[in-house]
Specification:
mainly alpha, elongated
């Protein structure tokens, strides 16, 4: 027996509604950005999966279905985490010299001015 079971069901329906709105908006935005927001889409899919999985478990449905949805949401969130990380900057292959002008070129050299 779960204390406040009805309230938990209402809470998870609210999370499901938020997940569906997030999924719709991320799919809409994905079309505009040529699917560069795959991490947002995966987070929305994870939110929908976790809320449906919890609703299945709370409503005494088929237990393995709920647990499978929870596992799918975990995979989705982990993939979203790794896809959302910024790419690593490439390390320079050689150490720059101490007086290397590439680090800070400074002001342009002053020359004769033309009038």
């Amino acid at each position: 027996m779960i204390i406040g079971r009805r309230y938990w069901i209402l809470i998870w329906y609210g999370i499901l509604a938020l997940g569906l709105v997030g999924l719709a908006s991320s799919l809409f935005w994905g079309r505009a950005t040529r699917w560069r927001n795959l991490d947002e889409i995966l987070r929305a899919v994870g939110t929908v999966c976790v809320s449906v999985g919890m609703l299945v478990l709370l409503n005494a449905g088929v237990e393995w279905v709920g647990e499978s949805l929870l596992a799918a949401s975990l995979i989705s969130f982990v993939l979203a985490l790794f896809l959302g990380l910024p790419p690593k900057a490439q390390q320079p292959t050689e150490e720059p010299a101490e007086n290397d002008q590439e680090d800070y070129p400074g002001p342009p050299p002053k020359g004769p001015t033309e009038s």
